[in-house]
Design goal:
CATH topology of one domain: Immunoglobulin-like
Number of helices: 4
Structural class: alpha+beta
Shape: elongated
Radius of gyration: 22 Å
Helix content: 25-40%
Order of helices and strands: HHEEEEEEEEEEEEHH
Strand content: 35-45%
Length: about 180
């Protein structure tokens, strides 16, 4: 009984590194891009497993271009864009091909979830239909509004729950073994 328990415990830790690539794919680099236009500065926040070394904003075309550099084949990212900077109906182009990410919006922000393949250099163009629309001096996004838009569970959340479940199973097994040994 003890040998079976020890083998299963050791295999739990021996198999876990196989999922290391999944964990590294899901880690997030935070970028804060300050767009200065129309006498205002807007912060665009990104969390992704790729780097954004540069960006460009064209107010006449209502277009934000993100220059992406990725060492991974599977790319995940989230972008928060203030509606006052760029809003309305969005059109996306990834490497000049139309792209359809998941979009959640409210009156203050657009929350865009990216999931695409392709390592190396990529370019994402985000084109809106409104620019500097509804700009109010004290237009702030509350943490509650961001949480409402981030309801979807990410891969790292799932792996965290899986690790917690594994820990609880191992702890329960240890308790059962100790109780049996006392009898």
């Amino acid at each position: 009984m003890k040998i079976i328990f020890l083998v299963s415990l050791v295999s739990l830790f021996a198999i876990s590194p196989v999922y290391g690539q999944i964990l590294s794919d899901a880690t997030g680099l935070v970028n804060r891009l300050d767009v200065q236009t129309g006498g205002y500065t807007f912060e665009i926040k990104t969390v992704s497993n790729f780097n954004i070394p540069d960006f460009d904003f064209d107010k006449d075309e209502k277009r934000l271009s993100l220059f992406i550099n990725s060492g991974l084949e599977n790319n995940l990212g989230e972008i928060l864009i203030p509606q006052t900077l760029l809003g309305g109906n969005f059109t996306f182009y990834l490497n000049e091909n139309q792209y359809f990410p998941k979009i959640n919006s409210n009156e203050k922000i657009s929350f865009i979830t990216l999931n695409f393949t392709g390592s190396g250099e990529n370019k994402l163009d985000i084109i809106g239909t409104t620019y500097l629309d509804g700009l109010v001096e004290k237009d702030k996004i509350t943490p509650k509004e961001i949480l409402l838009l981030e309801k979807t569970e990410t891969l790292s959340d799932s792996l965290g729950w899986l690790a917690l479940l594994g820990f609880l199973i191992v702890a329960s097994a240890l308790i059962v073994v100790k109780i049996r040994n006392r009898k």
